[in-house]
Design brief:
The complex is a heterodimer of chains A (403) and B (498). Chain A is an alpha+beta fold. Chain A is built from 13 helices and 18 strands. Chain A has a five-stranded antiparallel β-sheet with strand order 4-5-9-7-8. A four-stranded antiparallel β-sheet of chain A has the order 12-13-11-14, sandwiched between helices. Chain B contains 17 helices and 20 strands. With 498 residues, chain B is an alpha+beta fold. The chains are: A alpha+beta (403), B alpha+beta (498).
Chain lengths: 403, 498
C-alpha cells in the first residue's frame, strides 16, 4: 500500500519532494484521484494535492484567476460565473466517464492532462489558457514560468510544457488561468439524418464562413439516446453547429447557417438553455457515461476522419466526432486488444494519434497510453524529463515506459 | 554603443576558418557561403542596431538536409551557430558572434501548401508574415498575428520570438496560431512537432519552442492556422482628460464582457508627435487617446460599438467618434502606426521599451515613468497595447551628448523593473535577446534560470546554438534593456512599428 501524503503548502510539497529526491523514492502525484488516466504505475509514495486548495486571487478586469492546484474546477467555474466569466476551453467533467456522475476534479489535474472541451478548435486548448504556474521539480526546487499577463516573451514558455505532462515534470503548486467573458447567448443548429460524410461536409462548409462556429460535433444514429433534452430527436443521427455571442449576432448567424444548409430537410435550432446543456454533455463525454469498456480519444486532420472511420465499419465500435472533425471519441470492447492496436496503427498512417482515456487496469498495464512514433522524439522527451526530474521520481512511467 | 559581455571567442575556430569554409562546401552550394569581411557585413546586426558584430561565416542553406548537415558538422566541431530569419528582431536575438556560423534562412521562401479544408498553410520559415495572408485573402482568409513589421519579418522569426501585434487580446499570439513545425536540432536530428491536426500528445514541444528565440533548434517548415476574415470591422476614437479615465474605460470594457479586436492608448506627448507627423486629425486638447477596434458580424459590431460608447461616456469621454467606413478606421490608426517615425522626427535618438503590466496599473506606472523622465531629464512618450497590457515607452535622447545613451539605458532598465514590480513582465513581444538579458533576474531566481538552462541542454547539449542570448551569462543582475535607434540608422525604418 502506498503511503499517502497530503501537503497544505508549497513548502510542504518542496520538503516532501526533496526528501524523496534524496532517497530516490518514486511518487505518484494526483489531484483528487478521480481519474485513472495514464499508464498504471506503482509508487511507494502518493502525493495528493487535494488539501493544497483555494483561490489565491481573481481579478475579473485583468482576465485572470490564480489558484492552488487542489482547487476544484467546480469552485473556479462557479466563482467566474458570478462575474459572468468562464474558462473558455470548456474543461471536461470526466466524472461522467469515470464514475457516471459529475466529478470535475482539480485544477492541477486538468492542467496535467491538458483537458479541453468542445470549443477547443476555436478557443484553443487548456494550454492556450495557462498564463503561468509555480511547481516543484523532481529535485525539490520551486520553479516558475509565465505570469498573470497575456502577452509574455520572457524566457521559455514552460507553461506549455507543463500542460499535458501528466505530472512527470513537476508538482504544480500554483496555476494562473486566463479567463474570458461568458457569451450572452448560445444557439445550436441541428441537422438530422446525415451520414458521416455529409456531416463532415457541413463542418467544412461552415468553417469556411465568417460565422465563428464554436462547436461542431456529430452523433451517429443511436449515439444521442442519452440526451434528455425535450427538443432533440434522439433516434436520428445529429450534426450540430454552435454559435455564441451577443444575442442579435447569434440569431443572425443561425439564420445565415439555415440558409446555407437549406438543402437539408430536417433542420432544427436549440435555443440558449438547451444549447448550453447539449454542449456541456458533449464536452463531458456523457455518451460514454460510466463506460466499462475501453474509451480512446483520436486526434487527426479532419480531412482523414471519414476515411479512417470507414476502415472500421465492420467492427464493434461506438464513436462520436467533435472539434469539427478533428477529434473522434471511440469505445471498444474492453478485451479487444487486437482492435485497439489496429486503431492505433491506422491512426498513425493518417498522421494522428490515439490516447487511452479510460480502460480496465489490465489494459492500462498492457497497452501504450499514448502514441509514440519517432524514436528521436522519445529520446528528446526523455532528456526533457531528465532536466526536470533527474532521478525520475515524479509519476515515473505515467506517459510512456521510462517517462 | 555600450559594451556587452558575450560568450568567450574560440580562437581555435577562428584559426580554422578556411578549413571550416571548405568543409561547409560539402554540404551546400559554394555560392551559399559568405566568408569575406565585406560580404558578411549586412548580417552584422538585426533591428537592435546599437550592437554590431560581424559573423565569421554566413551560410544560406537551401533545404532541410543541408541545415541538418551543417548543424551536425558544427556540433561535432564545437562551432557556434546563430540562426537568422529576416533580421527584423528588436532585441538582438540574431546578433552574430565573432566565431559563429550565421545560418540565414532567407532561401526558405516558398509557401508549400494552402489547405483550406484543414484551414492551414504549410510554408517554409523565410516567408514573410504578410505573404501568408496575401496567399489566402482571395478566399477571405487571413493569418491572425500581425506584428508591426509584418511586411518584412519572417514566419520562422515570428515563431522564434512568439510575435504579437495589436490583435493579440482576441486572436492570441503566434503560439496560439501555430499548428506544427519541422525543426532541426543542433546535433542535426530532424523532428516534427505538431502538424495539421489541432492537438498533439506527449510533451508540448511545439509550445516550448515557440518564443525560444532560436536557442533550441532551427525551423525548416511551419504549419499555421488561418482564419476567416470577420464580416465587419469598426473603430472608435476616444479622447479623455486623463490617462486614468482612459484606463478605467479599458477595464470597464473588459469587465463589461467585451473583448475588442484591439485597444490602444497614446499619451499626450505621443498624440502631438504622431498627429504632427501623420496628420491623422487627432484631438489635441486631450491627455489620452484610446482607439478601440471591434469586429464580428454587422449587427454584433453595432451592438458592441453602442456598449463601448456608453462605457466611455460614463468615464467622461471628451472626444468620441466612430468610424463611418474603412477609410476613416484606417485614418484612426494612421497616427498610432506612425508612432516610431514620429518620435524619430522629434529626437536624434530614441530607445523603444517593451514591458507588460496589468492593465489597471497603467495610470500609476505612467506617473512613475514621468517621475523617472524628470529624474533622468529625458523626454518620454508612451503607447500602450491596452488590451493586453503591453507598454512601449519611447525614450528620447541624443547620443552625441556624452553619457546620454547610458542615461537612456538606465532609464529604460528602471522602467522594465517598474513593470515587473507592478506584476508584469520584461517583454511582451520583442523578446529578451541580448537587450534584456541582464534583467532576467528581476523576474526569475537562480533555480528558475537553472531549470530553463537545463531545458536548453536537453536540446543542445554543448550550448552551441545562439549562445549568449536570453539568459545572463554570469547569472548576475546588471542593467540593460533597450532598443537604440540612431536617426537615419534604424534598420527597416520604413516599417510601421506599433
Amino acid at each position: 500500500m502506498s503511503e499517502v501524503y497530503s501537503p497544505t503548502s508549497e513548502q510542504d510539497v518542496q520538503t516532501f519532494v526533496h526528501s524523496c529526491f534524496l532517497e530516490g523514492s518514486p511518487i505518484e502525484v494526483m489531484g483528487f484521484g478521480s481519474k485513472a488516466i495514464g499508464r498504471e504505475i506503482q509508487c511507494s509514495k502518493t502525493l495528493k494535492l487535494q488539501k493544497l486548495d483555494g483561490i489565491i486571487e481573481y481579478f475579473p478586469d485583468e482576465l485572470y484567476i490564480k489558484v492552488k492546484p487542489g482547487t476544484s474546477l467546480e469552485l473556479i467555474e462557479n466563482t467566474l460565473e458570478q462575474k459572468n466569466q468562464e474558462l473558455s476551453f470548456e474543461p471536461s467533467d470526466l466524472g461522467y466517464l469515470y464514475k457516471g456522475k459529475s466529478l470535475k476534479g482539480s485544477a492541477g489535474a486538468a492542467v496535467a492532462c491538458n483537458l479541453s472541451g468542445s470549443r477547443r478548435f476555436k478557443a484553443g486548448a487548456l494550454r492556450d489558457h495557462l498564463l503561468g504556474f509555480r511547481a516543484v521539480n523532481g529535485k525539490g526546487e520551486v520553479i516558475k514560468s509565465g505570469g498573470s499577463v497575456v502577452k509574455n516573451v520572457t524566457g521559455y514558455d514552460v507553461s506549455k510544457l507543463i500542460s499535458g505532462s501528466y505530472g512527470t515534470l513537476g508538482v504544480i503548486t500554483e496555476i494562473i488561468f486566463k479567463v474570458q467573458p461568458r457569451y450572452d447567448e448560445s444557439q445550436t443548429l441541428i441537422i438530422y439524418d446525415l451520414n458521416l460524410k455529409k456531416a463532415l461536409n457541413v463542418f467544412s462548409q461552415s468553417m469556411q464562413t465568417s460565422y465563428e462556429i464554436s462547436g461542431a460535433c456529430y452523433y451517429p444514429e443511436g449515439m444521442a439516446s442519452f440526451f434528455t433534452l425535450n427538443d432533440i430527436d434522439t433516434n436520428s443521427s445529429i450534426t450540430a453547429l454552435r454559435v455564441e455571442g451577443p444575442k442579435i449576432s447569434v440569431s443572425e448567424r443561425i439564420k445565415s447557417l439555415k440558409k446555407l444548409f437549406s438543402d437539408h430537410q430536417n433542420i432544427f435550432v436549440l435555443e440558449n438553455y438547451q444549447s448550453r446543456i447539449f454542449w456541456k454533455s458533449t464536452s463531458d463525454i456523457s455518451f460514454f457515461n460510466n463506460s466499462e469498456n475501453t474509451v480512446v480519444k483520436i486526434s487527426l486532420p479532419p480531412v482523414f476522419t471519414e476515411e479512417f472511420l470507414q476502415q472500421f465499419t465492420n467492427e464493434d465500435i461506438k464513436f462520436v466526432v467533435d472539434w469539427a472533425g478533428n477529434l473522434i471519441w471511440i469505445e471498444i470492447a474492453k478485451e479487444d486488444s487486437v482492435l485497439l492496436r489496429q486503431l492505433r496503427k491506422k491512426v498513425i498512417n493518417f498522421n494522428g494519434h490515439l490516447t487511452i482515456m479510460k480502460a480496465p487496469t489490465h489494459v492500462r498495464i498492457r497497452e501504450d497510453f499514448l502514441t509514440v512514433v519517432d524514436e528521436n522524439m522519445k529520446k528528446l522527451s526523455l532528456r526533457i524529463k531528465d532536466s526536470f526530474d533527474p532521478k525520475g521520481i515524479l509519476n515515473p512511467g505515467k506517459m510512456y515506459s521510462g517517462l | 554603443m555600450t559594451t556587452l559581455l558575450m560568450p568567450e571567442v574560440d580562437q581555435r575556430v577562428l584559426f580554422d576558418k578556411e578549413k571550416i569554409v571548405s568543409d561547409l562546401k560539402k554540404f551546400t552550394n559554394s555560392n551559399n557561403i559568405i566568408s569575406d569581411s565585406e560580404g558578411v557585413t549586412p548580417y552584422e546586426t538585426d533591428a537592435l542596431s546599437a550592437y554590431k558584430q560581424k559573423p565569421m561565416i554566413v551560410v544560406l542553406p537551401e533545404n532541410t538536409e543541408e541545415v541538418s548537415d551543417i548543424l551536425k558538422y558544427c556540433n561535432e566541431n564545437n562551432i557556434k551557430v546563430v540562426p537568422r530569419g529576416a533580421g527584423t528582431g528588436l532585441s538582438g536575438g540574431a546578433l552574430p558572434l565573432k566565431d559563429c556560423v550565421l545560418l540565414s534562412l532567407t532561401k526558405f521562401k516558398k509557401i508549400l501548401e494552402v489547405d483550406y479544408e484543414n484551414r492551414c498553410v504549410v510554408t517554409q520559415p523565410g516567408v514573410t508574415n504578410l505573404s501568408i495572408t496575401k496567399a489566402v485573402e482571395d478566399r477571405g482568409f487571413y493569418y491572425a498575428p500581425d506584428p508591426s513589421s509584418q511586411i518584412a519579418c519572417s514566419i520562422g522569426g515570428n515563431i522564434a520570438e512568439n510575435s504579437g501585434g495589436v490583435h493579440c487580446l482576441k486572436y492570441g499570439m503566434t503560439t496560439n496560431n501555430v499548428l506544427g513545425v519541422e525543426i532541426v536540432l543542433m546535433d542535426g536530428t530532424i523532428l516534427r512537432f505538431g502538424g495539421k491536426k489541432i492537438e498533439s500528445e506527449g510533451y508540448d514541444l511545439l509550445g516550448l519552442i515557440t518564443g525560444s528565440e532560436g536557442l533550441l533548434g532551427v525551423l525548416t517548415e511551419v504549419t499555421v492556422k488561418i482564419l476567416k476574415k470577420p464580416q465587419s470591422v469598426k473603430a472608435l476614437l476616444l479622447g479623455f482628460d486623463s490617462i486614468e479615465e482612459a484606463g478605467k474605460t479599458v477595464s470597464d470594457i473588459i469587465s463589461g464582457g467585451v473583448i475588442p479586436a484591439a485597444m490602444e492608448i497614446m499619451d499626450k506627448p505621443l498624440i502631438k508627435a504622431t498627429n504632427d507627423y501623420s496628420k491623422a486629425g487627432y484631438p489635441l486638447d486631450v491627455e489620452a487617446i484610446l482607439i478601440v477596434e471591434l469586429d464580428g458580424t454587422e449587427s454584433e459590431v453595432g451592438v458592441l460599438i453602442t456598449k463601448v460608447e456608453q462605457i466611455a461616456q460614463k468615464n467622461k469621454v471628451k472626444y468620441l467618434r466612430a468610424s463611418k467606413d474603412d477609410e476613416e478606421r484606417l485614418r484612426f490608426w494612421l497616427g498610432r502606426k506612425a508612432a516610431f517615425p514620429a518620435i524619430g522626427d522629434m529626437s536624434p535618438d530614441y530607445l523603444c521599451m517593451d514591458g507588460v503590466i496589468p492593465r489597471k496599473k497603467l495610470p500609476e506606472v505612467l506617473k512613475e515613468i514621468n517621475k523617472l523622465s524628470k529624474k533622468y531629464n529625458l523626454r518620454v512618450a508612451n503607447c500602450f497595447h491596452a488590451g493586453d497590457g503591453n507598454l512601449h515607452p519611447l525614450i528620447m535622447f541624443d547620443s552625441n551628448i556624452p553619457a546620454e545613451l547610458k542615461k537612456a539605458e538606465d532609464f529604460g532598465a528602471d522602467i522594465l523593473k517598474l513593470c515587473v514590480q507592478s506584476g508584469g513582465v520584461l517583454s511582451g513581444e520583442h523578446g529578451i535577446g541580448i537587450e534584456k538579458r541582464e534583467l532576467m533576474c528581476e523576474m526569475f531566481n537562480n533555480e528558475d534560470i537553472q531549470q530553463q538552462l537545463s531545458i536548453k541542454k536537453a536540446f543542445d547539449e554543448k550550448s552551441l546554438l545562439n549562445p549568449g542570448k536570453v539568459y545572463p551569462i554570469l547569472h548576475r543582475c546588471a542593467e540593460g534593456g533597450k532598443m537604440h535607434v540612431k536617426t537615419g540608422e534604424e534598420k527597416f525604418k520604413d516599417i510601421p512599428r506599433f
